[in-house]
DNA sequence: AAGTGGTCTAGACCACCTT
DNA sequence: AGGTGGTCTAGACCACTTC
């Protein structure tokens, strides 16, 4: 006897989650609106506390909602920064003394904190690209509108930048690329590797990420015209805060 | 009296999750290894079932572990495809009849399924870019090593491609770009917008994504040399299966 | 003070996989 | 058959926010 394939009913918590997701994606619930809470869901659907929590946790882990202790669960809001892959690193940018970041944020106020500069032995992935083992490392965190959005760790070959402004907090007009140019090594070519994954715990803390927010990892290498690697920069971006744009010709 | 700020102890489930994460990231537990299960954690730490589950759910939502029904929870494995942003779309590629996908997978076997081609009215975001409202839409899913890794939806202005091979399953040697070239509109410029987010439910199904896996969304527009938009292609990639690479000059 | 989400216990039944 | 994860109930205490 052939059993007609009955599609199994999804569990209650999924059905509730689907219902709420639909309300969010359809715009019925808007940015910042409050979702029905645990108690409301318990009453409305006649379910136990844990089941209501499970339904909400689905939306939270999807990055669609954010819980606020003692207050409620809210629809999450987005306001991405457009980061231009090629234009931002053009010669005209650093050539005229523009900080690269100003091209990203287009006037929105940004801050740099947790700046940290040290001479270190390079980790393996970096050493493999830069060749040498000794590097100057510049770590920093960028915030826009008062919220942290990016972590950045730059590595420079120590023999190249020892004693220069690149080893100091204030790198001067045009930033590190202008200084590399002063040293006779203008950056000519860039290569960026882009990945996305869930954040590690320390990234969650430093970027103040709610659950369900991936990070974008950019691993960028800068080269001179004759192929010498100048810098390796690993950036961790809050994925909800960014749109990357890359333009190129066929 | 000044209370010395006591750092609050993290909850039990977090401590257990941290312990297991450390074991994974340090390599003590390797790809495919089995994690201690719910019962093991209950016994070892003297906790309730729900607490053990909560600890494991942290790792699962971080994409570090995958549960297998009736079997156990396992360390997740990765094997990303390198996708070259600029080189793959160079004239030489489609000019010599290469399918673009062959440049990505470098010989690994790939398949296209769920192919679907229809003439439709464009959704708003697409219509805004292409100008017109009528489009031919090509939907498909790509799999590598038998696992789905990418969904793709291409849109072409209907007035441009009506009656051409672009409206049929088999687009011929060199694919759609070679056909656009035949029509006198060679693609000359590309612009890609890259985002990352957690998947929507239908993407989770079509890409067979475990929890804790983000998707990378690429929204690409192809232009002729004089700036006419030829194609809008929205791609959804399993983030765990991809590394994007973009090269450009200063 | 009342309501909210955060953590945790102690059970239960189920479908599924392994042996 | 026994172990695994998946779902669910019915409680409890806590810290925090809101009023």
Description:
The structure is a homodimer of 250-residue chains. Helices cover 28% and strands 33% of the residues of chain A. With 250 residues, chain A is of the alpha+beta class. Chain A folds into two domains: 12-75, Arc Repressor Mutant, subunit A; 81-245, Chorismate lyase (3-Layer(aba) Sandwich), CATH 3.40.1410.10. In chain A, the strands form three sheets. Chain A has a six-stranded antiparallel β-sheet. The first copy, chain A, has helices at 12-25, 38-45, 49-61, 91-95, 100-105, 124-130, 158-161, 175-182, 201-206, and strands spanning 65-68, 72-75, 81-84, 110-121, 134-144, 147-157, 189-197, 215-223, 229-238, 242-249. The model of chain A has no long low-confidence stretch (mean pLDDT 90). The longest helix of chain A is centred in the N-terminal third of the chain and has 14 residues, at 12-25. In chain A, helix 1 (12-25) packs across helix 3 and helix 2 crosses helix 3 (49-61).
Index terms:
homodimer, 250 residues, alpha+beta, Arc Repressor Mutant, subunit A, 6-stranded antiparallel beta sheet, two-stranded antiparallel ribbon, 9 helices, elongated, DNA-binding
């Amino acid at each position: 006897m052939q059993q007609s394939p009955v599609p199994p009913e999804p569990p209650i918590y999924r059905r509730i989650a689907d219902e709420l997701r639909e309300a969010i994606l359809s715009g019925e619930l808007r940015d910042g609106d409050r979702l029905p809470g645990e108690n409301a869901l318990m009453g409305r659907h006649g379910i136990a506390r844990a089941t209501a929590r499970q339904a909400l946790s689905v939306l939270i882990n999807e990055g669609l909602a954010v819980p606020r202790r003692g207050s409620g669960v809210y629809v999450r809001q987005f306001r991405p920064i457009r980061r231009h892959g090629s234009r931002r690193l053009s010669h005209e940018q650093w050539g005229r003394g523009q900080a690269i970041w100003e091209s990203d944020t287009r006037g929105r106020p940004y801050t740099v904190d947790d700046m940290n500069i040290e001479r270190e032995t390079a980790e393996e992935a970096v050493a493999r690209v830069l060749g040498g083992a000794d590097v100057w490392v510049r770590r920093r965190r960028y915030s826009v509108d008062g919220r942290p959005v990016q972590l950045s760790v730059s590595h420079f070959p120590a023999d190249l930048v020892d004693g220069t402004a690149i080893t100091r907090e204030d790198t001067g007009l045009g930033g590190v690329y202008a200084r590399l140019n002063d040293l006779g090594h203008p950056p000519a070519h860039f290569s960026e590797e882009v990945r996305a994954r869930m954040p590690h715990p320390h990234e969650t803390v430093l970027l103040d990420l709610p659950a369900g927010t991936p990070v974008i990892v950019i691993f960028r290498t800068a080269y001179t015209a004759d192929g010498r690697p100048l810098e390796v920069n690993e950036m961790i971006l809050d994925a909800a805060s960014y749109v990357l744009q890359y333009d190129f010709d066929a």
